[in-house]
Design a protein that fits this description.
The protein is mainly β. It is built from three helices and 23 strands. Strands 1, 2, 5, 7, 10, 11 and 13 form a seven-stranded antiparallel sheet that branches. A six-stranded antiparallel sheet has the order 3-4-6-12-8-9, with no helix packed on it. A four-stranded mixed sheet has the order 14-22-21-18, with no helix packed on it. 32% of the residues are buried.
Length: 333
């Protein structure tokens, strides 16, 4: 039998020597490449304005800024209320003196010399040669501002201003660091003819997705659907049905049923349209065009219609607060 010349302890000792050599090799390595998950490595300096939670809560309360976690994120399109338009600023580029999209024209106001339309694509403004900007309808008609997205803000200058001022109406001024969707207050921002963006405090601010609504949305209605002439007897104890007609551009489910009023005296709906079942029963397609229509009923004695009246109107608001109005012919008995 052949016997090995090595001691039984030789191989364990050899293994131990190898492990010691490997340990000495790793001692000289850069341990920064092996950070534990709970350790923080080198980071770049973030120069953006950062707010703590109380400041953010204060912003939301005072300036009606919607938290990004609860609403579309920065630069994302806000779902415009029925009949409204979203200006995306993506149809232009460069540094023109004016820009037109969807019936809205944006122009420079001295001392501004040009617009900035190639930032995202968003609209950028900063101090000096690119502020203020003025927004108005190309036909100079009245409109309502619903919202816009504040995408970025620069380093603030506490001595300057950074606000949106309506004509006629009040001012809305987001604070530095306030990013997200700015919802404009209804008071003072409905039926305005223009508004101005003054930017001398929040340098290099960009906005996107400006949502513009008509001052009043004209809706099509049908009094007593399926009947003509539309006879109404103010002495009757009955009700008269009025259908607000839906279309490709107007979704009747966006109507705030609590604001509906019919006739000169503003009669309220006879049925409780806040009840889900009742409401569902009043959504019908009365003209068979494939779009839902909202049918509401009004007590004829409460309408205020009188002999000789040839037209009756319904008014209300969308969920976003934009007024709506529609009229149809009547024959008062």
């Amino acid at each position: 039998m052949h016997h090995s010349r090595f001691s039984p302890l030789f191989f364990p000792l050899l293994s131990l020597v190898g492990l010691l050599a490997l340990s000495l090799l790793f001692v000289g390595c850069d341990t920064q490449t092996a950070l534990r998950p709970d350790e923080v490595g080198p980071t770049e300096v973030d120069e953006r304005v950062v707010l703590d939670e109380p400041e953010i809560a204060d912003l939301l309360a005072q300036y009606q800024l919607t938290a990004p976690a609860e609403a579309p994120g920065f630069g994302s399109k806000v779902a415009a209320p029925a009949g409204c338009t979203t200006i995306t600023f993506d149809a232009g580029s460069g540094f023109p003196p004016s820009y037109t999209e969807s019936g809205i024209i944006v122009t420079i106001v001295p001392p501004a010399t040009h617009l900035h339309l190639d930032e995202g694509p968003n609209l950028l403004a900063h101090t000096g040669e690119s502020s203020p900007y003025e927004f108005k309808k190309t036909d100079l008609s009245a409109f309502t501002v619903f919202s816009l997205d504040i995408v970025t803000v620069g380093i603030p200058d506490p001595t300057g201003t950074g606000d949106f001022v309506a004509s006629p109406g009040g001012a809305v001024e987001p604070r530095p660091g306030a990013l997200g969707t700015l919802i404009f207050p209804a008071a003072g921002w409905t039926g305005i003819t223009s508004f101005r963006w003054n930017e001398s405090r929040l340098g290099n601010t960009t906005i996107d997705n400006l949502v513009i609504c008509p001052a009043v949305i004209e809706v099509d209605i049908d009094i007593k659907p399926g009947s003509f002439p539309n006879s109404i007897n103010p002495k009757s104890m009955g009700v008269v049905p009025v259908a607000i007609l839906g279309s490709a551009t107007f979704d009747v489910t966006d109507v705030d049923v609590n604001t509906l009023a019919f006739g000169p005296d503003g009669a309220a709906p006879a049925h409780d349209l806040n009840d889900p079942v009742t409401y569902a029963n009043h959504l019908q397609d009365v003209n068979d065009d494939g779009f839902l229509d909202l049918v509401s009923h009004y007590r004829q004695k409460e309408t205020g219609l009188a002999t000789g009246d040839t037209e009756a109107c319904i008014s209300g608001e969308t969920m976003g607060g934009t007024p709506i109005e529609g009229c149809d012919s009547v024959r008062v008995l």
